[in-house]
Amino acid sequence: MNLLEQLNQDMKTAMKNKEKDKLSVIRMVKSSLQNEQIKLGRELTDDDSLTVLNRELKQRKDSLHEFEKADREDLAVKLRAEISILEEYMPEQLSEDELATIVKDTIAEVGASSKADMGKVMGAIMPKVKGKADGGLVNRLVQQHLS
Protein backbone atom coordinates (compact mmCIF):
# COMPACT_ATOMS: atom_id res chain seq x y z
CA MET A 1 0.00 0.00 0.00
CA ASN A 2 1.49 3.35 -0.98
CA LEU A 3 1.41 6.49 1.15
CA LEU A 4 -1.59 8.08 -0.57
CA GLU A 5 -3.70 4.94 -0.12
CA GLN A 6 -2.65 4.76 3.54
CA LEU A 7 -3.57 8.43 4.05
CA ASN A 8 -6.99 7.90 2.44
CA GLN A 9 -7.69 4.93 4.68
CA ASP A 10 -6.53 6.78 7.81
CA MET A 11 -8.56 9.83 6.80
CA LYS A 12 -11.75 7.74 6.74
CA THR A 13 -10.89 6.28 10.14
CA ALA A 14 -10.16 9.73 11.58
CA MET A 15 -13.51 11.00 10.27
CA LYS A 16 -15.39 8.09 11.82
CA ASN A 17 -13.59 8.53 15.15
CA LYS A 18 -13.98 12.33 15.04
CA GLU A 19 -10.22 12.92 15.40
CA LYS A 20 -10.12 16.51 14.15
CA ASP A 21 -6.37 17.07 14.63
CA LYS A 22 -5.36 13.89 12.84
CA LEU A 23 -7.81 14.59 10.04
CA SER A 24 -6.41 18.08 9.60
CA VAL A 25 -2.81 16.84 9.37
CA ILE A 26 -3.73 14.08 6.92
CA ARG A 27 -5.55 16.57 4.71
CA MET A 28 -2.53 18.92 4.72
CA VAL A 29 -0.18 16.09 3.76
CA LYS A 30 -2.52 14.87 1.01
CA SER A 31 -2.73 18.40 -0.33
CA SER A 32 1.07 18.70 -0.37
CA LEU A 33 1.36 15.35 -2.15
CA GLN A 34 -1.18 16.39 -4.77
CA ASN A 35 0.57 19.75 -5.29
CA GLU A 36 3.87 17.94 -5.78
CA GLN A 37 2.24 15.57 -8.27
CA ILE A 38 0.89 18.53 -10.26
CA LYS A 39 4.28 20.26 -10.12
CA LEU A 40 6.10 17.15 -11.39
CA GLY A 41 3.40 16.32 -13.92
CA ARG A 42 3.44 12.59 -13.14
CA GLU A 43 2.47 10.04 -10.51
CA LEU A 44 4.60 10.27 -7.38
CA THR A 45 7.04 7.49 -6.59
CA ASP A 46 7.51 6.31 -3.01
CA ASP A 47 10.72 8.35 -2.98
CA ASP A 48 8.85 11.50 -4.06
CA SER A 49 6.23 10.93 -1.38
CA LEU A 50 8.92 10.49 1.24
CA THR A 51 10.53 13.77 0.16
CA VAL A 52 7.22 15.62 0.60
CA LEU A 53 6.63 13.97 3.98
CA ASN A 54 10.16 14.93 5.09
CA ARG A 55 9.55 18.53 4.00
CA GLU A 56 6.30 18.71 5.98
CA LEU A 57 7.97 17.26 9.06
CA LYS A 58 10.94 19.61 8.81
CA GLN A 59 8.66 22.66 8.47
CA ARG A 60 6.82 21.69 11.63
CA LYS A 61 10.01 21.00 13.56
CA ASP A 62 11.42 24.39 12.54
CA SER A 63 8.18 26.10 13.58
CA LEU A 64 8.18 24.20 16.86
CA HIS A 65 11.67 25.47 17.61
CA GLU A 66 10.56 29.06 16.91
CA PHE A 67 7.42 28.72 19.04
CA GLU A 68 9.42 27.31 21.94
CA LYS A 69 11.89 30.19 21.64
CA ALA A 70 9.00 32.67 21.77
CA ASP A 71 7.38 30.90 24.77
CA ARG A 72 4.24 30.07 22.79
CA GLU A 73 3.49 26.78 24.53
CA ASP A 74 -0.10 26.75 23.22
CA LEU A 75 1.15 26.59 19.62
CA ALA A 76 4.04 24.27 20.49
CA VAL A 77 1.65 21.67 21.95
CA LYS A 78 -0.39 21.65 18.74
CA LEU A 79 2.74 21.25 16.60
CA ARG A 80 4.09 18.40 18.76
CA ALA A 81 0.81 16.55 18.13
CA GLU A 82 1.10 17.17 14.38
CA ILE A 83 4.72 15.97 14.37
CA SER A 84 3.79 12.75 16.15
CA ILE A 85 1.03 12.10 13.58
CA LEU A 86 3.44 12.73 10.68
CA GLU A 87 6.07 10.46 12.21
CA GLU A 88 3.61 7.55 11.98
CA TYR A 89 4.00 7.69 8.19
CA MET A 90 7.80 7.95 8.18
CA PRO A 91 9.99 4.87 7.79
CA GLU A 92 11.64 3.58 10.95
CA GLN A 93 14.51 5.84 11.96
CA LEU A 94 18.08 4.53 12.09
CA SER A 95 19.80 4.41 15.47
CA GLU A 96 22.88 6.56 15.99
CA ASP A 97 25.08 3.41 15.92
CA GLU A 98 23.62 2.23 12.61
CA LEU A 99 24.08 5.71 11.21
CA ALA A 100 27.69 5.88 12.43
CA THR A 101 28.40 2.60 10.60
CA ILE A 102 26.92 3.98 7.37
CA VAL A 103 28.96 7.17 7.79
CA LYS A 104 32.21 5.21 8.28
CA ASP A 105 31.50 2.96 5.29
CA THR A 106 30.64 5.92 3.05
CA ILE A 107 33.76 7.84 4.09
CA ALA A 108 35.83 4.80 3.13
CA GLU A 109 33.88 4.40 -0.15
CA VAL A 110 34.41 8.03 -1.16
CA GLY A 111 38.00 8.08 0.08
CA ALA A 112 37.44 11.19 2.18
CA SER A 113 40.20 12.28 4.52
CA SER A 114 39.44 15.81 5.69
CA LYS A 115 36.60 18.25 6.27
CA ALA A 116 37.18 19.53 2.73
CA ASP A 117 35.54 16.29 1.53
CA MET A 118 32.41 16.94 3.61
CA GLY A 119 30.22 17.74 0.56
CA LYS A 120 31.23 14.55 -1.24
CA VAL A 121 30.47 12.42 1.83
CA MET A 122 27.13 14.11 2.54
CA GLY A 123 26.13 13.78 -1.12
CA ALA A 124 26.83 10.05 -0.99
CA ILE A 125 25.17 9.41 2.40
CA MET A 126 21.91 11.35 2.13
CA PRO A 127 20.33 9.17 -0.61
CA LYS A 128 21.13 6.07 1.49
CA VAL A 129 19.43 7.37 4.63
CA LYS A 130 16.65 9.44 3.06
CA GLY A 131 13.73 9.62 5.47
CA LYS A 132 15.45 7.31 7.93
CA ALA A 133 17.71 9.86 9.64
CA ASP A 134 17.79 13.53 10.49
CA GLY A 135 20.13 15.52 8.23
CA GLY A 136 21.54 17.46 11.20
CA LEU A 137 22.56 14.25 12.96
CA VAL A 138 24.15 12.89 9.77
CA ASN A 139 26.07 16.15 9.36
CA ARG A 140 27.32 16.03 12.97
CA LEU A 141 28.47 12.41 12.63
CA VAL A 142 30.27 13.10 9.35
CA GLN A 143 32.08 16.06 10.92
CA GLN A 144 33.11 13.91 13.90
CA HIS A 145 34.50 11.17 11.69
CA LEU A 146 36.33 13.54 9.36
CA SER A 147 38.10 15.48 12.11
UniProtKB/TrEMBL annotation:
A Pfam match: YqeY
Record GO terms (molecular function): carbon-nitrogen ligase activity, with glutamine as amido-N-donor
Protein's recorded name: Transamidase GatB domain protein
The organism of origin for this protein: Halalkalibacter hemicellulosilyticusJCM 9152
